[in-house]
Amino acid sequence: MLKSLVQMSDMRAFHPAVRAWFERRFPEGPTPAQSEGWPEIAAGRNTLIAAPTGSGKTLAGFLVCIDALYRAAGRGEEVAGRTQVVYVSPLKALAVDVQQNLETPLREIAEVAAEMGMTLPTLRAEVRTGDTTQSTRAAMLKRPPNFLVTTPESLYLLVTAQRSRALLTTVTTIIVDEIHAVARDKRGSHLAVTLERLERLCAQPPVRIGLSATQRPIETVARLLVGAGPTRSTPDGGPRCAIVDVGHRRALDVAIELPSGELEAVASREQLGEVLDAIAGHVRAHRTTLVFVNTRRMAERVAHLLAERLGDDAVAAHHGSLSRDRRQRVESQLRAGELRALVATASLELGIDIGPIEMVCQIASPRSIATFLQRVGRSGHSRGGTPKGRLYPMTRDELVECTALLAGVRSGALDAVHPPQLPLDILAQQIIAECAADSWREDDLFELMRKAAPYRQT
After folding, report:
1. What is the CATH number of the domain that holds 363?
2. Which tens digit of pLDDT belongs to each residue from 165-175?
C-alpha cells in the first residue's frame, strides 16, 4: 500500500485533498522531520525519525498512511472495516491525545475534499487501552478501525487473545511513538517481542515506523525497532532501517534557580516554600505552567501547596494513580487552557498536544538529559517556539547533578541508551502467552523470539 508513493519530500505526490489540507494548516511547509521522513516511509522502508519535541514527528508518520488509504480507496480497494495502521503509544494519555489529533485531520481533510467535489471514504481511529470499556472493545472487534491507537501492554493482550488476533491480520504499518521512552528498560524488551508476534499474524510484514527524541547511539534504537536476523540487517551488520536524524539541538531558555539559603543534604521546609513562591511567580507570569516532580506523593503535596498560593481552581495534579475519570478531566482542562499550573510526574512528560504550555519547572533532578529535554520541550511546543524551563535542585547533591545536566544540555550531550539484554522474565511471559494463543514447534518459537533485538544473541 505504501509503496505507491515514492517521492514525497514536497507535497506534490500527495492526494489533492491531503495536500490542500496540509498547505492550509501549515503554510510554512513541512518540517525537516516530515520532508525527510515521508519518502522513506512511502517507499515501504522501516524508518526511524529522530527529532526534538514539536518537530512534527507524529504527523510525519501518520500523513503518509492517511494518504495511502485514500489512494487505495481511489483504486477501488476496500479500506473500511479493516485495521491497517497500529499506533503504539507508551502512555494512555498520549494514546487518547493522538486519537483526538487523528480525528481532526481526518474530518478536516474530508471537508476539503467535499469543497473540491470529491468523496473520500470515512477513515476511523479507535483507542484500545486499559481504560477502554468492555462494550467499546467488543464493538471494535465487530467493526475494526483503520487506525488502532494502543499501548505496549494492550497490544500484548491483543496479539494473545484469539478474537483480536484476527483483527490484526490486515495491518500494513506499525508506528511506535516515543520509542526512546521504552528503549532503556524491560518495557522495550517486552514490546520488541510483541512486535515480532504481531508481524507473524500479518498477511505481509508491516512497515515499522519509529518516532523518537534524538538518542545516542541512534542505531541502538533502530535495532530495537526493526528486530534482528539476516533480513533485518545490512551487509555491514547495522539495522536495516532508514534513520532520519534531524538533530536534537534547538534554542532553549533554561536555567537553575536556587533558594536564598545554602542547600544542605536534606531540603528544609523553608527552602521548599521559597521554591514554591518562585514557581508561583512564574505561574502568574505565564498562561500555563507545567511543574514536574519525581514521585506521586510529591505531586499531590506540591499541587496542594501551590493551590494555597494560586487558588484551588488554578492548580491540579496528574500522576499514574489517578482514576481514569479524574485523569481525563485534568487533561481536558489542560488542553482547554483552564489550568494555570499542573503538577505532574512522568505520567505527562510525553504527548503531542497537551495545551498552551509556556513554562516548565522541574523540582529536584530529572536524573537524565533526555528526560529534562523531553519535559522542557512540552513548553513552546510549536514550530519556531522556544521551550522555557527552570531547574530547582533541593539538596547539595542535586545541585551538582543539575549543574552537570545543564552543562550537558548546552554542549549538546545526550545520555547513552543501554537496553536490557536477555531479560528472561519477559521472555518467559511472552512464551507462555504465545503458546496459549497457538501451537508451536520449539525450534520455530525459538527463532521467533530471536528476531526481537534483546534476544538476538541467544
Report:
1. 3.40.50.300
2. 999 999 999 99
